Amino acid sequence: MSAQKTSASSSASLAILGGGNLGQALARGLVRSGTLPPDQIHVTSLHPPSLDALAEEGFPVGRDNSAALQGASTVLLAVQPQQIVALVDEIRGDIDPARHKVISVVSSVTVAQLREMIPAPTQVVRAMPNTAVSIGESMTCLAADPDSADALDEAEALFKGVGLTIRIEDEMMVGATALCACGIAFFLRSVRAASQGGIEIGFHPEDALLLAAQTARGAASLVLRDDHHPESEIDRVTTPRGCTIAGLNEMEHQGFSSAMIKGFVLSAQKAALLFDDGDVA
Question: Which fold has domain 177-271?
Answer without folding.
Answer: ProC C-terminal domain-like fold (1.10.3730)
